[in-house]
Fold YugN-like family protein.
Amino acid sequence: MYPLESSINEKVYPFTQLQEKLETYGMSLGGAWEYDHGYFDLKLADDGAYHFLRIPFRALQGSLDEKEAMVQIDQPYLLSHRYKNDVDAYASSGALEGAVNQFQTPVEKDADIPHEYIEKGKEALQRLEGLLIK
């Protein structure tokens, strides 16, 4: 994880408005959101690891499933997940397991972030700040 300084840190937005703007920018709501917090991700690259710009947020008023929910952005950061990209040497997984367990667990959940992706992440965050702060 690589924390980023940002002018959107601690800014408050209506959740539906924030979601609309960030999704227009290409970000997606992370699948592990809860009613009181979550994050938006922008995939920067997939080169043996997934590199993301992550914008975490938490509900200040209401819950995320309510139209009137207000959220506060927490400190953005970069995140890399290194994953196994080879074939199962033992071929132990069958069709049923493949249907149930479709997603790989990262080999390294908090992998080092190459310098080029730190720069890409900072640039993406600057563009995002311009979109959100007017």
